[in-house]
Every structure is written in C-alpha cells, then in structure tokens.
Amino acid sequence: MKEWNSFDKITTGKGMWLIDSKGNRMLDGVASMWCNVWGHSNPELVKAIVNQSKKLQHSSMFNLTNEPAEKLAENLVKISPGMYKVFFSDNGSTAMEIAIKLSLQYWKNIGERKKTKIATIENGYHGDTFGAMSVGYVPEFFGKFKEQLFSTIQFPVPNKYRIPKGFTFSDYQNYCIENIEKKFSKNNNIAAFIMESGAQVAGGVIIYPKGFQRMISKICKKYDVLFVLDEIATGFGRLGSMIQYQEQKSTPDIVAYGKMLTGGYLTMAATLTNKKIYDSYLGEFNDWKHLFHGHTYTGNPIAAAVANENLKMYQKNNLIRRIQKTSKVFEKFYQEISEIDIVGDIRHKGMLMGIELVTNKKKKTPINPKRSINKIFFEEGKKQGIYLRTLGNIVMLVPPLAISEKELDLLLNRTIRTIKAARSKVV
Ligand SMILES: Cc1ncc(COP(=O)(O)O)c(C=O)c1O
User: Fold this and answer.
1) CATH class entry, domain 46-316
2) Which of the ends of the chain has fewer CB neighbours closer than 10 A, N or C?
3) Domain segments of the chain: what residues?
C-alpha cells in the first residue's frame, strides 16, 4: 500500500477512453478489469439502466422474481448448450462459490456421501473469497490464508513456454491428461473438476492446447465427476467465441459467467446448471435438498436489464465476428513485441494478450516476483496515454471487446513504447 499513496481520480469514461480529474485521457487497455464490452457511456446501455431504474430498482429474489432477471435467465439458457437453470449473484467470486456449493451438495442430494473432494488444475484463479481461493490457489496472493483454505487435488497445466525438461509440448499435454485419468480411476471421492474455460487468465494467460479441455470433460464423464467451468473472464467473446466451452467441444455440468455479462456497467454474475444438477435439488421441504444461498442483490433488475440490452447488442452488432476480425491487429505486432529484449513470450487469443517479461531470454528467467513492476508500468503507460496493468511479470492486454482496429493499433503501439520505457527500471 505504501507505494500507492495516491490515486488518479477517474471522472468520466467516453468510448474506449478514461478521463481523470485533471483532464488526462487514458485508453482503457484492461477493459476496466476485463469487463467492458462497448466502451464507456454507451447510450443504449445507459438508457436500459435509466428505464429500468424508473420501474423497479431492486426487489428480493426470495419467494419472488422480476421480469428482467427472468428474461436474462431465458437468454442465458438459450445461448448455453446443455444448461437448464440460472442462479444469479453479484460478482465472479460469488458465482464460483455457488458453483462449488452446488457441485458438492449435488452428491449429498442424491445420497452419495463419499464424493467430497474438488480437483482442479494448477495456476487457476477463481476469485478472492474463501472457496474461490481454495480452488484457484495462487500462493503469492493467498499464502496468508493457507491454513483456512480447504485442500484440493491439483494437476499440472501445459504451458508451452515452460515445459519441464525432457518433454515435447504434446508429450507434456498427454502427461497432464494421463495424470488426471490415473487419479480419477483410483479415487471415487472426487465430486467435481473445476477449471477456467479456454485459458487461465490471471495465472498468466495460459491458453490451453487444442483438445485439452475436451479431454478433461470426457474423463469427468467417464468417471462420474462433475465438470465445472469458469467462463467469467473468458466467455462472452473475450477469446473470440461467445461460449468458450462450445468452441472447446466440452460439456460442463455447471458454468459461471460474470464480468462482460452487463457490458461492464453493473455488477452481476450467473451460475448455470444442467437439468441433472437442478433436479437433484427438488424434494419435499423435509428432504432438506435446497441450496442455502442467496445474496441481497441476487437478480437485481437494473443489472439484469442492462445485461439483456448488452446481449441484444452482441447480436445486433455481430460482435463475435467483429472481435475475430479486430483481434487480427494483435498478430501484426507479434514480431515487434517479441524483439524487445525483456520479452520472453507472447500469448494471444481473441481479445486477450499476455506478454511475459524476463531478464534473460535464453534462460527464460522471470523478472524477480518480489520486484514491484506494476506501478512502473502503470506510470509509464499513463505517460503514453494508456491504462495498463501487469500481473506478476505479465503485461496484460485486455481491451474492451468492441474496440476499433485503429484504437487497438494505438494501444499496441503505445504498449510497446511503455515496455521499452520501463525496461531500464525493471531489469
Ligand atoms: C476466471 C475468473 N474467475 C473469477 C473471477 C472473480 O471475479 P470477481 O472479481 O468479479 O469476483 C475472476 C476475476 O478476475 C476471474 O478472472
């Protein structure tokens, strides 16, 4: 905290730009925490908020429902193959807590008491609450709470840039998959396998090789383990497709959405389940099969209204096709970025790029994780007129999804200038 003793105040957002109280403009290179879709102050989204605000601002989802939330549930089920019901919450972490609870209680509901363990892959991230920290355990972030977190079974993840000695990338991918199958075949206590869908984002933009997620999905089915996907950061077009599990040809039992769900305007997340999970919660009151979970703002009508408008705009503007085209701009810059002497690796898919910084390219030595480079990059980025954030030794580029090719070009040019300017301060 000491180094962040003062902050710039953002007063206005216009399109892809953030404007501070002194009038400085920054291109929003992280989509305001990976959630902004259409840019700031979009008139259609603002109108949806204003209109709903005049009708009903909030009413509880206990014993009641409301029109925008019902409509949103319908819309989400329509675009999510295999999904049947929706549980709303107000952020990604809570959506994942619900996913964890739903999957653990499912087995109790059907009278199977042995299945109590959660399996996952290393390096994942699912949020900052206790269940989410346990499943997405990042030692640097959560080490201080280790004693309080529940244990999980973790499997390695194939990161092309850091394959252990003696393996090819494809051998290592097979090794990771075989590890999972071996464990599942010998243990009947695993309730669910939880992973990010398509890529690990906070863990350093690790994009899964083709078939990896599909294989895990298949193994889960084979050994009767629930397959739970976190699409909070990777769904809704971030990786270039609306529903990432569809692109990965995988079949979850439970999936969580958040971030871009409301276009980045209001706080809302959703946990969807298939019919099998939902049906297990049906019973007489005394069967005690219901899920004891609910948040004050569950199903908030204003958030739901803006989410519905957002989904309408995806269709109307053919956003997914547009992302597929715009994201090609990233490719134009591969060479120029990789030639910078502190850049070890570039990982890119759709509207997501991670640039891994190293002190020695040959040895792939990461920048010392104890060095605080976040502020250096933030300040240098600000000088270039971009809002940039690093996570560990990775420069993250996560622009608003509807960014124009011209603005993305500008963002990449300015990112290169930022890395070059920061270079002497970080090595
Ligand atoms: C994959 C993933 N899951 C869950 C979360 C948690 O979402 P929130 O910050 O809205 O709680 C995040 C946040 O970055 C995320 O990237």
Assistant:
1) alpha beta
2) N
3) 10-34+322-426, 46-316
As a whole number of angstroms, the distance between CA 179 and CA 254 comes to 23
Q: Which of 35, 133, 259 has most ligand 1 atoms within 8 Å of CB, for mutation?
A: 259
Mention the CATH class of domain 10-34+322-426.
alpha beta
Residues 333, 416 contacting (CB under 8 angstroms)? yes
Which amino acid appears at position 235 of this protein? G
Which range has the worst mean pLDDT, 4-8, 46-50, 295-299, 388-392?
Answer: 4-8
3-state secondary structure of 166: coil
**Count of CB atoms situated within 10 Å of the CB of 331:** 10
pTM of the model: 0.98
| Beta strand spans in 328-397 (E) | 343-349, 352-360, 365-366, 386-387, 389-391, 394-397
Q: C-alpha angle with apex 203: 251 to 400, nearest 5 degrees?
A: 80
| Cβ burial 52-68 (10 Å sphere, 16+ → b, else e) | beeeeeeeebeeeebeb
Q: Which residues pair with 19 in a beta bridge?
A: 12, 25
Residues with C-beta less than 6 Å from any ligand 1 atom:
91-93, 96, 125-127, 196, 201-202, 230, 232-233, 258
The answer to whether residues 406 and 329 touch, using CB atoms and an 8 Å cutoff, is no
Please state the atom number of ligand 1 nearest to the C-alpha of residue 34.
14
